[in-house]
Amino acid sequence: MQKIGLLFSGQGSEVAGMGLDLYQNQPTYRAVIDQASQVTGLDLPAIMQTPELLAQTQYAQPAIVAMSVGIAQLLAENNVPITAAAGLSLGEYSALIANQTFSMAGGLPLVATRGRLMQQAIEHQAGQMVALIDPNVAQVQQICAAVQAQGEWVAIANVNSPKQIVVGGTPNGIQQFTTELNRLAPTTKCLSLKVSGAFHTQLFAETAQAFKPVIEQTSQNQGLYPVISNTTQQPFELATLTETLVQQMAHATHFSANLQFLAQQGIDVLIEVGPGKTLSKFARQTIPTVERFNIGNQKQLTSVLAALKEVH
């Protein structure tokens, strides 16, 4: 019997209209979104249809998590057995709600607060991020250190796959970094990301500490299945859950290592839930022999459930 793992989308995957057909056709999914709206005080169906709102961290984060949890609930409703899960950055919260470490009533307001705090941090300290394709990691680290020595902050923020890492920092720091990268490694592809903050860098250290008491006050339970941490690269543990989530906000994520961990546990099917298919691309680059599916709409849900039924 195949072992199924879930991958939960991170911020940046949001798109206007996401989940609309699921909301219209799936009562279980609609109930999740409506409950999420109630406990956060946000009109999530409206937010999910409005590009200007989804462009704001404070709205994008609860919207993505609610959608992802709703899809996970549809899989549970169809008796799809889940062995483990991983999420990229924000996606860890989706995973921790889906596996019942956090309840909907506790977890969604927690995510909404995280989004608000990060939005405030962005408004206080602008940041930028760039994705590097096929980089020399040691060289990237050396350039970051050189820029930091000049008084600007820049650092590796995401290790997504063997072929992609992301660097984040202050606008001046990123400008200096890209100039030096172009000089030393002109063949390395460098893409600006459409974000307004340098997530998972020390620019969010104060925000992470402000968020800590909010996590501590949110009820935590033993989950139904393991969720692999971006930060420790091991399954979350209740005893250290708060501290690990605090560290995640201001330290690099290691999603590539999470994928490798899942493969080592015998996971041979991965289902990415939520908007987009970025994580499936990372999975293809990291563990290419594992079968991959995406569920972000009604057509994909129907197709994946049919495919799984054939296997099982």
User: Looking across the biggest beta sheet, what order are the strands in?
Assistant: 7-2-1-8-9
CATH overall fold name of the largest domain: Malonyl-Coenzyme A Acyl Carrier Protein, domain 2
Q: Strand pairing plus helix content: what structural class?
A: alpha/beta
Number of distinct beta strands: 9
Arithmetic mean of pLDDT? 96
Low-confidence stretches: none
Q: How many separate helices?
A: 14
> Strand percentage, roughly?
5-15%
Sketch the major β-sheet: 5 strands, parallel
Number of domains: 2
User: Radius of gyration over alpha carbons?
Assistant: 19 Å
CATH class of the largest domain equals Alpha Beta
N to C succession of SSEs: EHHHHHEHHEHEEHEHEHHEHEH
CATH superfamily descriptor of the largest domain: Malonyl-Coenzyme A Acyl Carrier Protein, domain 2
CATH architecture title of the largest domain:
3-Layer(aba) Sandwich
Using the alpha-carbon principal axes, give the shape: globular
What is the percent of helical residues?
Answer: 40-55%
Distance between the termini: 7 Å
Quaternary organization: single chain
